[in-house]
Amino acid sequence: MESVKKSRFEMRLSDDDKLLFEKASEIKGYSSLAGFVSAVMRKEAQEIIQEHERILVSNRDKEIFFEAILSSLEPNQKLKEAASRYKELTDQ
């Protein structure tokens, strides 16, 4: 079995936060507060990263779309042929 290297992370909490986190940890069935905090942090981190990547993709898509619309390029031969076929098929 492969061993996983673990790193230490320390954090100070208010008494209220610690009680809140311990209660949630117990409700979810975690055997330790550290396990609960680690799982919650991992889930939140993954969601933050996914959202960030969606925004990057979305912004890149917008740039490509608007660049294509605003460019003054003429349609290439294949596009002209496809438009002709479409017009013939739709009788326009």
Automatic annotation (TrEMBL):
The keyword Ribosomal protein does not apply. Belongs to the TacA antitoxin family. This is Uncharacterized conserved protein, DUF1778 family. Keywords: Toxin-antitoxin system. One of its GO terms (biological process) is regulation of DNA-templated transcription. It comes from the Bacteria.
